[in-house]
Automatic annotation (TrEMBL):
This is Oxidoreductase, NAD-binding domain protein. GO terms for molecular function: nucleotide binding. Belongs to the Gfo/Idh/MocA family. Residues 3-123 form the Gfo/Idh/MocA-like oxidoreductase N-terminal domain. InterPro entries: Gfo-Idh-MocA_inositol_DH, Gfo/Idh/MocA-like_OxRdtase_C, Gfo/Idh/MocA-like_OxRdtase_N, NAD(P)-bd_dom_sf.
Length: 336
C-alpha cells in the first residue's frame, strides 16, 4: 500500500521531508500541502503535483490523505494533532509535541478517547546510528551504570525570531528526549545556568545557557545550548559509565590533510547532520502506517519532554531558583 501523505507547514523542515519521501524513501506519496502562507504551500506542492489546502483542517479531513506530517511552529501543533486523532489519522508531529505540558495532556486525552496510538513525535535522534551504538554499550551492562552525560548542542546562528525560551523548548528539547530514551528513566529536576553571553547573539537573547538535569536514579546531565557559534552545527555527547566513557564520533564526511593541518568539514544544519536519522525515522513511520501500526516516540514522550521544558523555563525565568522539580502526571496505562 502506498501511504498518501499530507504536509502541514511548508517551511524548510517540511520541504526537506517532502524531498526525502519522494527521492530517498519508499512507500509514501505526497498528495497535499497546507500552510498559512498560500504561496509557500503552492511552491512546496508543485514538484510533487500535490493539492494545496487553504487550512490545516481541510487537509486533515481530505479523504485522499491517509496520514499527516506536521512541521509548523511548536506553538500551533496541539489543535492540528488533536484534529488528526479525531479524524483517525496517523500523524508525525515535529518536536515539540506542544509548548506546554497542558496541551500535551490534552493530546494524550484525545488519543486515549480514540483508543489507538496515532501520534509519533519527531524526535529523530532516537534513529541516529551513533546514539544507538552508545545506547547498546550502556544496555549491554559490561561497563557498569551511567553516572553522568555531557552534551553540547551548538548552532551556527539563529534568526531574530528565536527567543530565549526556544533555547529550551526548540533546541534543548532534543537532549531532553534523547537522555530519557538513552537512560530509560525520567528527568526529575532541572536548573538552567546563564554563563557569560556571546556578543554574536541578538540583544534579546540569553545565549549560551547550560541546562543541568538529574534523572530518577541520580544521573547528572548537562547540556550546553550555544546557538550563535558562527562556524558549525555541532552536536556532542559523552556518556560516562562506571568503567568507560562513550562519545559520539565527530560528524565528519571527509578529512583534508595539507600544510594547514588535518581537518574535516563541519555540518551546518540539523537537516544535514541528522539526514540519515530523519530518513530512518520517516521510513519506519511510513512502513508502520501501511501496517496500521504505531511506531516511534509517543504522546507520553512528547508530554514528558515538555514537562521538563516547563521546569527549565521556570528556572530560566528566575535565576535565583534552586533546582526546579519536574511535575509529571502518573503515566497512563495506555502508554505503558
Ligand atoms: C531546530 O528546530 C532543530 O530541531 C535543531 O535540531 C536545533 O539544533 C535548533 O536549535 C532548532 O531551532
Amino acid at each position: 500500500m502506498t501511504v498518501r501523505i499530507g504536509l502541514i507547514g511548508a517551511g524548510g523542515m517540511g520541504r526537506a521531508h517532502l524531498a526525502r519521501i519522494t527521492n530517498e524513501l519508499s512507500g509514501g506519496e505526497i498528495v497535499a500541502v497546507a500552510d498559512i502562507n498560500h504561496d509557500a504551500a503552492v511552491q512546496a506542492a508543485a514538484p510533487y503535483g500535490a493539492r494545496v489546502h487553504d487550512t490545516s483542517d481541510e487537509l486533515i479531513n481530505d479523504p485522499r490523505v491517509d496520514a499527516v506530517i506536521i512541521a509548523t511552529f511548536g506553538k500551533v501543533h496541539a489543535p492540528d494533532v488533536i484534529r488528526c486523532i479525531e479524524a483517525g489519522k496517523y500523524v508525525l508531529c515535529e518536536k515539540p509535541l506542544a509548548t506546554t505540558a497542558e496541551d500535551c495532556a490534552a493530546i494524550m486525552a484525545a488519543e486515549q478517547r480514540a483508543g489507538k496510538k496515532l501520534v509519533t513525535v519527531g524526535f529523530m535522534r532516537r534513529f541516529d546510528a551513533a546514539y544507538n551504538e552508545m545506547k547498546a554499550v550502556l544496555d549491554a551492562g559490561g561497563n557498569g551504570q551511567a553516572l553522568l552525560v555531557h552534551n553540547r548542542h551548538r548552532n551556527p546562528t539563529v534568526p531574530e525570531s528565536y527567543t530565549s525560551r526556544m533555547a529550551i523548548d526548540d533546541t534543548a528539547i532534543h537532549e531532553i528526549d534523547t537522555m530519557r530514551w538513552l537512560l530509560g528513566e525520567e528527568i526529575v529536576r532541572v536548573r538552567v545556568e546563564r554563563p557569560k553571553s556571546t556578543t554574536h547573539r541578538f540583544p534579546h537573547l540569553i545565549d549560551p545557557v547550560v541546562v543541568v538535569m538529574y534523572t530518577e536514579s541520580g544521573v547528572r546531565i548537562d547540556d550546553e545550548v550555544n546557538v550563535n557559534l558562527q562556524w558549525a552545527y555541532s552536536i556532542e555527547c559523552e556518556l560516562v559509565l562506571e568503567t568507560a566513557a562513550v562519545r559520539l564520533g565527530d560528524q565528519e564526511k571527509i578529512h583534508v590533510r595539507d600544510e594547514h593541518g588535518d581537518r574535516n568539514a563541519m555540518c551546518q544544519s540539523h537537516i544535514d547532520r541528522f539526514q540519515a536519522a530523519f530518513n530512518r525515522e520517516f521510513q519506519e513511520w511510513i512502513n508502520a502506517v501501511a501496517r496500521d501500526e504505531h511506531t516511534g516516540s509517543t504522546s507520553w514522550d512528547g508530554y514528558a519532554a515538555t514537562s521538563v521544558v516547563d521546569a527549565a523555563v521556570a528556572s530560566l525565568e528566575d535565576e535565583s531558583a534552586p533546582m526546579v522539580e519536574v511535575r509529571l502526571m502518573e503515566k497512563p496505562a495506555f502508554y505503558a
